[in-house]
Amino acid sequence: MRSTLIDAGPLLALFDKSDQYHEDALAFIKSIDNPLVTTWPVITEVSHMLSFSTQVQINFLTWIDRGGLQVMEIEPSHMFRLIDLCRKYDDVTMDLADATLIIASEITGIKEIASIDSDFYIYRNVRNQYLHNIFPLGKV
After folding, report:
1. 3-class DSSP state for residue 3?
2. Model confidence over 97-107: pLDDT tens digits?
3. Closest by alpha carbon to 131, among 111, 106, 116?
4. Could you tell me if 72 and 109 are in contact, meaning their C-beta atoms sit under 8 angstroms apart?
5. Does the model's pTM come out above 0.85?
6. Where does the source fall among the domains of life (predicted)?
7. By the 8 A CB rule, do 86 and 99 touch?
8. Contact call for residues 4 and 36 (beta carbons, < 8 A)
9. Does residue 90 or residue 77 have the better pLDDT?
């Protein structure tokens, strides 16, 4: 079964009922049957953005613990690639979480991502391929 990478935006929207993309995120999660894969920097980013409520943060972490997400480890050996990506995309300010998702794609071969960010239409992996964004804003 193929997997899908997921960025912070849809995860934040899923757990923040006031987020403008909350309904889109709910519909997306209900519709997808692929395993969702992310990285620790993405989880950290979402947790920080959910800091308005400790209970919501706990709900997010509990969902992960129950199998909502698979978490991919980024190793210290990937530091050179992280630096390379951040330099390459300096003009669009690639953040750590986004860089780790590109690396996760390179390691696993996953070609799909769920993201609210338009930056993933710019970023390319080491094979010079774009990730296909399958998060349909307002279309699910």
Report:
1. coil
2. 989 999 999 99
3. 111
4. no
5. yes
6. Bacteria
7. yes
8. yes
9. 77
